[in-house]
Design a protein that fits this description.
Elements: E1 11-13, E2 20-22, E3 27-31, E4 37-39, E5 50-52, H1 56-64, H2 67-72, H3 81-105, E6 109-111, H4 113-121, E7 128-131, H5 137-149, E8 154-156, H6 160-167, E9 174-177, H7 181-197
Parallel strand pairs: 7-8
Antiparallel strand pairs: 1-2, 3-4, 3-5, 6-9, 7-9
């Protein structure tokens, strides 16, 4: 009998550019009872789904061309591209911070520039380094270089205040996440967030 491990993933088309891709590589939207278009990052909300590529441009085009009305076969509440993009951005940020909070509660996070630098050089190396967007250029380059030498993924996202807030501490410029499941989850969420915003580093 044929193996069932290589099942074809469900595919959907982007409302804006019409590109077809695996469903889990697109953004899913649903129409709320009040007619509002809501992003469904977990792809679990009930109802008919509509999809766009994981980027700001396609979301904006879908709004401007009124493609959500066509997809849902109903009038959607008026919205602007700015409001919808802001909603998606905020929810993506919340997911990243949520995973960081869980990792911190599990004792998987070390914070602070000096502690992160020491962790990179230690015998038990981190699985992921996160740098705040507003970290000083000199410190960022030093940590990035050290992480690269030791083949540790290093990404920039969020702010020092946001890092500190989720950890219940003063602002933090750098975090080290210990190896484990949180690393893959964080990398996936951060990559999706950066892809959406069109960031290239």
């Amino acid at each position: 009998m044929p193996r069932q491990t290589d099942k074809v993933k469900p595919q959907r088309s982007c409302l804006a550019c019409r590109m077809t891709a695996d469903r889990d590589r697109l953004l899913r939207f649903v129409r709320a009872p009040d007619g509002e278009v809501v992003v469904d990052l977990d792809a679990k909300l009930p109802g008919r789904g509509a999809y766009t590529c994981l980027n700001v441009t396609c979301v904006r085009d879908a709004v401007l061309k009124r493609q959500f009305n066509r997809a849902f076969k109903a009038e959607c509440a008026a919205t602007t591209t700015e409001l919808l993009v802001a909603m998606i951005t905020e929810r993506m940020q919340s997911r990243i911070l949520g995973y960081l909070g869980l990792a911190n509660k599990a004792g998987k996070v070390q914070s602070g520039g000096s502690m992160v630098s020491d962790a990179i050089k230690s015998a038990h190396k981190p699985g992921l380094i996160l740098l705040a967007e507003d970290i000083s250029v000199a410190i960022a380059e030093k940590i990035k270089l050290s992480a690269s030498v030791h083949s540790i993924p290093c990404l920039q996202v969020m702010s020092k205040d946001e890092f500190g807030s989720i950890l219940g501490k003063a602002p933090r410029s750098a975090l080290a996440v210990k190896p484990g499941g949180f690393v893959a989850q964080l990398i996936n969420e951060i990559q999706r967030y950066r892809n959406f915003l069109g960031e290239v580093r």
